[in-house]
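Weekly structure sync, notes
Attendees: PL (lead), two postdocs, one rotation student
Agenda item 3: pending single-chain targets
PL asked that the sequence for the first pending target be pasted directly into the notes so everyone works from the same version. It is reproduced below exactly as submitted, 252 residues in total.
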Amino acid sequence: MPEEASAPRLLPAGESCVVVDFGEHIDYGINRRVQALRKALERASFPWIREMVPTYRSLAIYLHIPGEDLVKIHKALEKTLGSLEREEAHPGEVVAIPLCYGGDFGPDLSFVASSNNLPEEEVIRRHSGREYYCYMLGFTPGFPYLGGMDLSLATPRLAKPRQIIPAGSVGIADQQTGIYPMESPGGWQLIGRTPLRLFDPEREPPILLEAGLWIRFVPISPEEYRSITQQVATGSYALARQKKTMERGDTA
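Predicted structure, written out during the meeting:
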């Protein structure tokens, strides 16, 4: 159930950071307010903002100079917060992430299927049949924390984490699904892999996704995987985007 909207709190976090806290729970409505404030502040281009870090329920705003005029900053934030209603009404964009399921790309697909008494084809259908809301990025650069997975696919983490998981791997851990942006250790059940580079230090910006987006996984064949990999390498691949339309039954 969505949490009833409450007044945001402005909290100091040392001399060079102000945190705007919107609630106490993981909730889509709360996170939309976080993202709306971030976008509004980006448009305002206040000179005292060095960096902004959104989380599930708050926005940390780092200042250029420790001890800047916090009274002035609080007034500017309160004024911006008062103009968010229109921004919050727009649910954002959906980006399509091509995903090759199973085989070498998703070695744990069969385990996820058997654990939930489903054929592999049904796991793919249910996993790709949802649009997932990206609450925040973290863990490693560009790792999206996604909400909205079909709970019939929930599967425990690996008893023994892998030391190396290839970049682009998509996995399931308990009631979550996510994408590994870079090669790293991990304990999620791997069901597929995307040829897209979620993190590329040579690209501007280096992180492909951002908090506040919706993600839709599009099943592709191994041949399509190889083709898209070549397009990504040459810079000719265009990420498919469209406006999100909220439908009855959408959950995050």
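Discussion points:
- The mean pLDDT is 90.
- The two ends are 11 Å apart (CA to CA).
Action: rotation student to compare against the earlier draft before next sync.
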